[in-house]
Specification:
By secondary structure, the protein is mainly α. It has one domain: Phosphate transport system protein phou homolog 2, domain 2 (Methane Monooxygenase Hydroxylase, Chain G, domain 1), CATH 1.20.58. Helices cover 83% and strands 0% of the residues. The protein has 7 helices and no strands.
């Protein structure tokens, strides 16, 4: 019977459930588009297709802002899940910041146009892919928190794994950069972009840590 109690937070709050689903879907979508942004930039630079994808991330971020405000309205005006309202708001804000990080990174590539030597292409794509997987595992942990609390710990573990992988890849790329014949200014510029991409995984891990705490609170 206890498992049934924890199956879902929503119960009769179907409108809130739909909003949460849409919001988390957008977080996942932003990650998929960000992966395309980096791949296209590496292959073709600031092309028309690249610009289209950057604009797509910006649009997703705008849609998420609207959804976040709607969720906040549902939580406060209709006094839904009052005991966990603060945790849910914190989670939503953290997810929103993750999308902001995707958007900011995409814009940095567009505005600063870093020159990435071919020998680093694979590393950048690999790092981006692992970072997106890390965020997606956080999304799955969040879905578990709302619908199936027993699944949260498995997804949190995956977040930790992917974050560690991202750290290893970024360290490897930076190590290679600083042992190259590139000028110091280019080394610093490339390192900056590696660290900014890796930072998205760090944010995802922070969110997963909070989710683990929120899950303990739900159980008590």
């Amino acid at each position: 019977m206890q498992n049934i109690k924890y199956l879902t937070l929503f119960k009769r709050a179907s409108r809130l459930e739909a909003l949460m689903d849409s919001f988390l879907d957008k977080v996942s979508e932003a990650g998929l588009v960000f992966r395309q942004v980096i791949r296209i930039y590496i292959e073709d630079g600031v092309s028309d297709e690249f610009e289209t994808k950057v604009n797509q991330i910006c649009e997703i971020e705008t849609q998420c802002d609207v959804l976040r405000r709607d969720i906040e309205t549902q939580l406060f005006e209709y006094t839904l899940i009052p005991d966990l309202r603060g945790d849910v708001l914190s989670l939503i804000e953290g997810m929103d910041e993750t999308i902001n990080s995707y958007e900011d990174n995409a814009k940095r590539f567009r505005d600063e146009i870093p020159e990435i030597p071919k020998e680093y292409n694979k590393g950048f794509e690999e790092l981006t892919s692992v970072v997106v997987d890390c965020v997606e595992a956080t999304v799955m942990a969040a879905r578990g928190f709302f619908r199936n609390i027993e699944a949260v710990s498995d997804h949190v573990h995956k977040v930790s794994f992917f974050e560690g992988e991202a750290d290893e890849i970024s360290s490897r790329i930076i190590n290679k950069i600083y042992r190259s014949e590139l000028t110091l200014d280019r080394k610093i510029h490339l390192r900056y972009f590696v660290e900014r991409i890796d930072d998205v995984a760090d944010r995802a891990e922070d969110l997963a840590d909070y989710l683990a705490i929120y899950t303990i609170k739900r159980r008590n």
